[in-house]
Design goal:
The structure holds two protein chains of two kinds.
Chain A: E1 4-8, E2 11-14, H1 15-37, H2 42-67, H3 75-80, H4 89-105, H5 112-131, E3 157-161, E4 168-172, H6 174-198, H7 207-226, H8 241-264, H9 272-298, H10 303-328, H11 336-344, H12 363-369, H13 391-404, H14 407-410
Antiparallel strand pairs in A: 1-2, 3-4
Chain B: E1 2-5, E2 8-11, H1 19-23, H2 31-55, E3 59-60, H3 72-88, E4 115-118, H4 125-133, E5 157-161, E6 165-174, E7 177-186, E8 192-196, H5 209-216, E9 220-223, E10 235-237, E11 240-243, E12 251-255, E13 260-263, H6 272-279, E14 282-286, E15 291-294, E16 297-298, E17 317-324, E18 327-333, E19 337-339, E20 342-344, H7 349-358, E21 363-367, E22 375-377, E23 380-381, E24 395-399
Antiparallel strand pairs in B: 1-2, 4-5, 5-6, 6-7, 7-18, 8-24, 9-22, 9-24, 10-11, 12-13, 12-14, 15-16, 15-21, 17-18, 17-21, 19-20, 22-23
Classes of the chains: A mainly alpha, B alpha+beta.
Chain lengths: 411, 414
């Protein structure tokens, strides 16, 4: 039961609804501000937000229906009567993802990952705020019951009154920890964005989004395990839907960075051993988290001791993923180990590949500099080179060109 | 001012003047249009927030009060009936028959003084004699502890006796396996209940059997079928059919007279379930199985492959059997854990069937086993649960006292 905040004629407005709405609003504002701060497309973020307002509830309901079809009279009633059943966070996230894809298909903004980067901090903030609604409902509480009166207080536990029996139990405050996790992830993403903005580095596309996936996936996989009302897939009563989604979230970044590395550095295979090592580490951590989940379910009485271990393993998996991201380089000055090594071999100066493309008439510059690059470097896709020139250097260089307004001088 | 290279864009001659362009390379470069897009989307977001406030977990009070309605007539009739029973007691030789209102979920609190512990079988003789006095059961019908069976050393026999219910719980070792039995005799079928979490079908909340037993004031509680774990099997709760697919599982129905009515898989399909429920006054169903005893005989398919429960492997097991009218036997077999000083692997369903038959069950049905199998007495776990830790589940069956708190004799048991 969700506690009523106030009544509007015959309409009961719950605290949960108000808090979720505030969370949504905060998420959208934060996403727009992030886009402005990291110089991405604000309209793209707003279009994505607008579409999300329709798609997120729909997908959220649809996934809830999939998990608990018995709560509805039929698939039609799922949409016709919004009071029935509930909403599923992974569904809302899928809705936002779909909205971002549609925004990209509409050619608004500068790419899917770019839009998702801007949305990621806002999403973490919105989820953090939304989870606070647990103070006003019986949802999102832990399986673990605290019988020791010393532990019967926040932040560890909250009293949960059974709606039917009226019995009170002090259960783990899952919602509060999920909210804290949301705020921490928001702070971390903001710090990454702020670092890049403050140091005038160009944030690579996907960096914020991948960091969000890793961190949120790790936190959610562990915290969802604590819940006493987690939604499960129809075919699986042990691993919750959110944990499944969290597992996918944890695996997407390593896959993304590995594919990126293979695409960018296909000429040189020296990066394969460190990548394989990191993959083994990620999979080992996830397997460890899986074993921890097994013990949580089998040994519920000691679950409180296993949760931190599980969370630690998942965060370590995220950390290893981050090191994989560093192999790729996550901003314009971060060249990654491959190019760092190349630099150590005596190259201290490098330029953006675009400078060498002939569309701007600088063929001679390309010719001059070609021998500075690794073998087969120019066979690579052009996108990778976006990291190669520090923005300040590039801006200063091209500002000079503008001010001189004389391209002949450069050619 | 910008040029495309692959999927990326670069600005040549970056300056404040062209900063608007770099934020929107794909779409319109017209700042006014961008502002319009942002404004329109902001309106959509605000409308979405308003919709959220009005619809997400908020609801109209019209048509949502069904759950809060009290059946006043039923309460009135039951109150009058119990009052008359009390008043006529001693005037006419009318047997007291307390009952629990159908709409009541939390059972009357059991009398703490009516619970007792014994170390030997003989200590129960007096309790059984008093149960006979109350008209609950005749001494010869009580099966405790079972022919040729001795109670496990160092384990208390636990019992509860008042005018409406007798329960005796004991542990015993048979062929290196630890069996936990509870014999239950009740006065009225309303004392035999099934409860699903939140009292709401398909609730995602899961709780342990001991938690639910304590909350509901169960004298004896038992894990049931964990219906929320799977999406098949018949589900009838409080007389309403929620799920009607019996293609895969045997079903145990419990009618309003407290009789266990067994139905084999594929017997009831489609609308036949609703018809069956109406014709037989079914109160609730249990969907796990298989049926292991019918007409005092072990069923042939107790040793067959079955859709759930892996009957051919050794696991912790649970079962419910009927010994007579309003007379039941609950059984759980320890497995996957250390019990009575030794590791126990559990038993196969066929072995359980033989034991339930040997205990004198007219019919018996397998409940969800493994870590789910939990038996509670007065809210305490009585068996050794698999892996040493209870699994949160979606349902339990329970037996409760029907004695209203004001009608207790008090101190009638040690």
């Amino acid at each position: 039961m969700n506690e009523a905040a106030f009544y509007m004629t015959t309409q009961n407005i719950s605290y949960t609804a108000i808090i979720v709405a505030v969370g949504v609003l905060a998420a959208v504002i934060c996403a727009a501000l992030t886009a402005a701060a990291v110089r991405r497309s604000v309209p793209a973020v707003m279009v994505c937000a607008g579409l999300s307002m329709v798609l997120a509830p729909l997908c959220s309901r649809a996934l809830y229906w999939y998990c608990a079809p018995e709560q509805f009279d039929g698939i039609k009633s799922m949409f016709a009567n919004m009071n029935m059943g509930g909403y599923c966070l992974p569904g809302a996230m899928i809705g936002v993802l779909l909205a971002a894809v549609i925004t990209n298909v509409l050619k608004v903004g500068d790419g899917l990952l770019s839009t998702l980067d801007c949305i990621a901090p806002g999403a973490a903030l919105g989820i953090g705020i939304g989870r606070l609604s647990g103070f006003f409902s019986n949802d999102d509480k832990g399986n673990y019951v605290f019988t020791d009166s010393a532990q019967q207080k926040l932040p560890m536990s909250v009293p949960v009154v059974d709606e039917v029996t009226g019995a009170v139990q002090w259960r783990f405050a899952s919602f509060l920890w999920e909210a804290i996790a949301g705020f921490v992830i928001f702070a971390v993403l903001l710090a990454i964005a702020a670092y890049c903005t403050a140091t005038d580095r160009k944030l690579n596309r996907g960096t914020l989004f991948m960091a969000f996936l890793s961190l949120f996936g790790a936190a959610q996989a562990a915290l969802e395990s604590t819940r006493y009302d987690a939604l499960h897939m129809r075919s699986n009563g042990f691993i919750s839907m959110m944990q499944m989604v969290a597992l996918i979230m944890l695996l997407v970044p390593p896959v993304y960075y590995t594919v990126k590395l293979f695409r960018e550095k296909r000429a040189d295979r020296s990066f394969i051993p460190p990548v394989v090592f990191r993959w083994v580490a990620v999979l080992a951590m996830l397997a460890g988290a899986g074993v921890a989940e097994y013990y949580i379910q089998r040994k519920g009485s000691i679950a409180l001791m296993i949760y931190p271990v599980q969370l630690l393993l998942l965060l370590l998996a995220g950390l290893v993923t981050w090191s994989l991201a560093r192999l790729c380089g996550f901003d314009s000055e971060q060249q990654g180990e491959y190019f760092a090594e190349w630099q150590r071999q005596g190259e201290s100066e490098y330029y953006d590949q675009d400078e060498y493309n002939d569309h701007d008439g600088f063929e001679d510059l390309r010719d001059d500099q070609e021998n500075r690059y690794p073998e087969n470097y120019f066979d690579e896709p052009a996108q990778k080179s976006s990291r190669f020139v520090p923005r300040r250097q590039s801006d200063a260089m091209w500002a000079d060109v503008d001010s001189a307004d004389d391209y002949d001088e450069w050619s | 001012m910008y040029q495309k290279s692959g999927n990326d864009y670069y600005f040549y001659g970056y300056s404040e003047e062209n900063s608007a362009e770099r934020t929107e390379p794909h779409g319109s470069r017209n700042p006014l249009r961008q502002v319009c897009i942002c404004a329109a989307m902001a309106v959509v977001v605000l409308l979405g927030c308003v919709w959220t406030v009005l619809n997400v977990y908020s609801f109209s009070l019209d048509g949502n009060m069904e759950g809060y309605e009290r059946d006043l007539m039923e309460e009135y009739e039951l109150g009058v009936e119990n009052f008359m029973i009390e008043t006529l007691d001693g005037i006419y030789s009318v047997k007291k028959t307390y009952m629990i209102q159908d709409s009541v979920t939390v059972m009357p609190e059991p009398d703490p003084n009516a619970f007792g512990k014994a170390r030997s079988v003989s200590e129960l003789d007096e309790v059984i004699a008093r149960a006979e006095e109350y008209g609950l059961v005749s001494a010869e019908d009580v099966i405790f502890p079972g022919e040729g069976i001795s109670v496990l050393d160092n384990c208390d026999i636990r019992y509860y006796l008042d005018e409406t219910i007798l329960t005796i719980s004991w542990r015993t070792e048979i062929e290196q396996n630890v069996y936990n039995f509870t014999e239950v005799v009740i006065n009225h079928p309303s004392q035999f209940r099934k409860y699903i979490t939140n009292n709401e079908y398909a609730s995602s909340v899961r709780k342990t059997v001991s938690t639910m037993s304590q909350e509901l004031n169960a004298v004896v509680g038992m894990s049931c079928d964990f219906y929320a774990y799977r999406s098949f099997g018949i589900m009838v709760y409080n007389g309403k059919v929620y799920r009607g697919n019996e293609r895969y599982l045997d079903t145990c129905f419990v009618n309003t007279d407290g009789e266990l009515i067994m139905s084999h898989q594929n017997e009831l399909l489609g609308d036949a379930v609703q018809e069956f429920v109406e014709n037989n006054n079914i109160n609730f169903s249990i969907s796990f199985g298989p049926i292991i005893v019918e007409d005092y005989k072990v069923t042939p398919h107790a040793a067959d492959k079955y859709r759930v429960g892996q009957p051919l492997d050794t696991y912790s097991r649970a079962a419910i059997g009927q010994l007579g009218s309003l007379h039941y036997l609950l059984c759980s077999v320890d497995g996957g854990t250390v019990s009575a000083g030794e590791y126990r692997s559990g038993i196969k369903v066929a072995r359980l069937a033989k034991q339930m038959q040997a205990m004198g069950c007219e019919k018996a049905y397998t409940l969800d086993g493994g870590q789910t199998a939990t038996m509670t007495v007065d809210g305490d776990i009585f068996n050794c649960v698999g892996y040493g830790s209870e699994r949160p589940v979606s349902d339990i069956i329970l037996f409760a006292t029907a004695m209203p708190e004001g009608s207790r004799a008090g101190g009638d048991a040690q």
